[in-house]
Design brief:
A: 4-stranded antiparallel beta sheet; B: Ribonucleotide Reductase, subunit A; two-stranded parallel sheet; two-stranded antiparallel ribbon; 60% helix; globular
Chain lengths: 91, 514
């Protein structure tokens, strides 16, 4: 039944792979599930996509808004700034 | 601009969005935005509206252009390489027929709806969000039409989707859903479409279905689907924000919003019954069952969302428990409706083969073998005797959702669920308590429903016989409609794939993605 998870779903493609890897690095409790053509990542309560981690993996500047290009879906309250995108459940 | 002078995302959003607003001096605000009050929603401070993505117009165009470039290069590759021949089976294409006639026109309706809603909001935050969404929705309908046009060159039933959307009986289900939302006020429209449909329910359409398209080799649909879905994430976020914004503005808004959530959850859920059938019956290779998808995206994820909203005094939508009871039977009941009435539909239906029945038994252990397998086996025996069953008695439709009344009692899958209400001396019929409640709250709206069956009987649909109605639908008998096994689509498919008819009789293994 109901859980406290937030999730993000991304296309399973070349651009999204380092983002997925960054999410795995920054969210130790994240659970990554692969379906045809897409990846769904669940995490309890909170999930962060950090610019710095992605940049470290791709070796160039990365604007968190680039996430939009390969984003499929998400769930949770969103907060975005220059350094990260956070999904969270309310208290 | 020098790097050290670059605006932060927050500053940029402030300058490019909020700073575009002005206070009117020679007109009253209530004259400029005449629809903001009649629904009973109280707004005190539009500046409290948050766009969490802080997307500004310059960034919007940049990313949308990139999405389009990616999409169109794939569409080109798809048509140049005859991608339509790479799908698992020609049966799959029928899901696309339903999509083009049922969903793509809703994208266009959403384009109009968000343009209208955005015009009515007195704050610049929602104006900009609605404007972007309106443009997104136009893009979705265009890219879908463009992509699916490749299939129109090879398969029947795609030729006049816009005409069909206004006329064909089951397409009144999606059409009336959106008309209902667009003829409400702007706040109800956003609650209906942005929150209840996009935030709570569209994952059910786009995620398993698009992933299913990928699994069935349909590169084109996957691509437009995910391209649209990338916008959808932004729309969903808007949906949640609009709800939180209204709830935080005034506590008098809470019961109104709860009533809308109850209504639009049920309206959207009934609409998605078409998707349940696509998932369980129309994809030759299946990603997950409707029941599993409902558990994952509504019970678990929706449950978490409503727990989040409980601090505002919002509870789970009314009759969500009925949707959970129905998950064991929904797709089977709906597919049976189409099997019954496929002679008047713009796509083909068929009976699941034995390996597919096994999959359905495994996914629906409590219901499939008990209730639906015997029905399908009986229909198969008729078909083998050359008496493929078509139901020539037109069904009673639910006055609210407009689906034939074939759903069963929440606690008894063997008993058809009938509800009715009287209004101004006439009796109206419903498929469920959810649909009856919606009618009872606004009967003056729903008595106006354009019910296809009533319209046929009143002589408004080309005539009283099936051939006359088909002509009025722009459907060609024995070509666009009826049983898949006897269809020109199947004959063509076998020819293109170099398969003999004997080869084609070989059962296609229903793949199970564990």
């Amino acid at each position: 039944m109901a859980n406290n998870n937030v999730f993000i779903a991304l296309q399973n493609n070349e651009e999204a792979r380092p983002i997925i890897e960054a999410i795995e690095q920054d969210n130790s409790e994240a659970r990554v599930e692969y379906a045809p053509a897409m990846v769904k990542i669940d995490a309890p309560g909170r999930l962060v996509v950090r610019r710095e981690t992605v940049e470290g993996l791709i070796g160039r500047d990365w604007d968190p808004q680039e996430l939009h290009i390969n984003l499929i879906s998400l769930s949770g309250n969103v907060d975005e700034d220059d350094d990260e995108i956070v999904l969270r459940r309310g208290n | 601009m020098a790097a050290n002078k670059r605006l932060s995302l927050r500053e940029k959003y402030q300058k490019f969005t909020r700073d575009l607003a002005w206070e009117p001096t020679y007109q009253k605000k209530s004259d400029i935005f005449p629809q903001t009050e009649f629904e009973g929603i109280h707004i005190h401070d539009w500046d409290k509206w948050e766009d969490p993505f802080r997307l500004t117009v310059d960034a919007y165009w940049k990313y949308q252009a990139e999405k389009e470039r990616k999409l169109y290069s794939i569409i080109d590759a798809f048509s140049q390489n005859n991608g339509q021949l790479n799908v698992t089976d020609a049966r799959y294409v029928n899901a696309l027929k339903l999509f083009l006639t049922g969903v793509s026109p809703l994208e266009y309706a959403a384009h109009r709806g968000f343009a209208m809603a955005g015009r009515q909001f007195g704050g610049v935050g929602p104006q900009v969000s609605c404007q972007m969404q309106s443009i997104d929705e136009l893009r979705h309908s265009q890219t879908q039409i463009h992509t699916i046009s490749q299939y129109n060159k090879f398969f029947n039933g795609f030729h006049d989707w816009r005409h069909m959307h206004d006329r064909v009986w089951y397409l009144s289900v999606p059409k009336s859903f959106f008309d209902d939302a667009m003829s409400a006020g702007p706040f109800e429209f956003l609650t209906a479409i942005s929150f209840s449909f996009e935030y709570v329910l569209t994952n059910l359409l786009f995620m398993p279905f698009m992933s299913g398209a990928a699994y069935n080799g349909d590169m084109a649909t996957v691509t437009f689907g995910f391209s649209a879905q990338s916008d959808e994430s932004r729309h969903m976020t808007l949906g949640l924000e609009v709800i939180k914004f209204m709830l935080e503005q005034d506590e008098r808004n809470v019961p109104i919003i709860q009533k809308w959530i109850d209504k639009w959850f049920w309206r959207g859920y009934r609409l998605l019954s078409l998707v349940s059938m696509m998932m369980d019956y129309m994809l030759p290779k299946r990603v997950m069952s409707w029941k599993e998808a409902w558990e994952m995206y509504f019970e678990e994820n929706g449950g978490a969302l409503f727990e989040d909203l409980s601090r505002y005094g919002i509870r789970m939508p009314k009759y969500w428990d009925v949707s959970v009871k129905e998950k064991h039977r929904l797709s089977h009941e709906v597919w049976s409706i189409f099997y019954n009435y496929d002679h008047a539909a713009a796509f083909h239906s068929w009976l699941p083969d034995e390996s597919e029945m096994e999959w359905l038994s495994a996914k629906y252990p409590d219901t499939f073998d008990k209730y639906y397998r015997p029905r399908f086996e009986y229909w198969r025996s008729l078909q083998q005797n050359g008496e493929r069953w078509y139901n020539n008695t037109l069904p009673m439709l639910c006055q609210t959702c407009q689906i034939p009344m074939a759903f069963t009692e929440p606690d008894d899958p063997t008993q058809i669920c009938y509800r009715s209400s009287e209004y101004n001396g006439d009796r109206y019929h419903f498929c469920s308590d959810g649909c009856k409640d919606i009618f009872d709250d606004e009967p003056e709206k729903y008595v106006q429903a354009w019910l296809p069956v009533h319209q046929i009987y009143q002589g408004n649909c080309g005539g009283a016989s099936v051939p006359e109605v088909l002509e009025w639908y722009h459907l060609v008998d024995d070509q666009d409609n009826k049983e898949y096994l006897e269809s020109p689509d199947r004959a063509n498919w076998l020819r293109w794939k170099g398969l003999s008819d004997a080869e084609a009789d070989r059962e296609v293994k229903a793949a199970v993605n564990e």
